């Protein structure tokens, strides 16, 4: 009987390890926290860009030229941007914005650890953010 209980426990632990969390990245990261981009694909960010998770799966951010809004409702560790809307101003940092937004849209994995947030995709593109405070 003890061995059967151990097998059931081990199977339950394995299933739990493969099951997404019920909370989203926005719920795991304190709402209203401003996450500032530190690196893009492991290289220092060329421009200041932010990401902030709001209530009800909403998000917003600031870019050098523009701002953006969207929604994210996938449970951790998954990440999926929906309804992304970006203002249409132009400036010299526009290529940096376009690169950031492309990786943000392709990101499908999120990890929150203390003051760090990592978003990445299957092609190993990544956006690494650090917590800078509340907006």
TrEMBL record:
**What residues does the DUF306 domain cover?**
32-128
One Pfam entry name: META
Stored InterPro entries = DUF306_Meta_HslJ (IPR005184), HslJ-like_sf (IPR038670)
This chain belongs to which protein, by name? Answer: META domain-containing protein
Entry superkingdom: Bacteria
> What Gene3D superfamilies is this protein classified in?
2.40.128.270
Q: Which residues cross the membrane?
A: none
Origin species: Algicella marina
Q: What is the lineage of its organism?
A: Bacteria, Pseudomonadati, Pseudomonadota, Alphaproteobacteria, Rhodobacterales
């Amino acid at each position: 009987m003890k061995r059967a209980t151990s097998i059931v426990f081990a199977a339950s632990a394995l299933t739990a390890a493969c099951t997404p969390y019920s909370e989203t990245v926005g719920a795991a990261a304190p709402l209203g926290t401003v996450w500032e981009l530190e690196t893009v694909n492991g290289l220092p960010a060329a421009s200041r860009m932010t990401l902030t998770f709001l209530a009800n799966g909403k998000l917003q951010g600031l870019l050098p030229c523009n701002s953006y809004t969207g929604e994210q409702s996938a449970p951790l560790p998954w990440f999926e941007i929906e309804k992304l809307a970006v203002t249409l101003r132009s400036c010299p940092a526009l290529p940096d914005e376009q690169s950031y937004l492309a990786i943000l849209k392709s990101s499908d994995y999120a990890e929150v650890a203390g003051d760090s947030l990592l978003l990445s995709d299957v092609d190993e593109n990544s956006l690494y953010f650090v917590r800078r405070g509340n907006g």
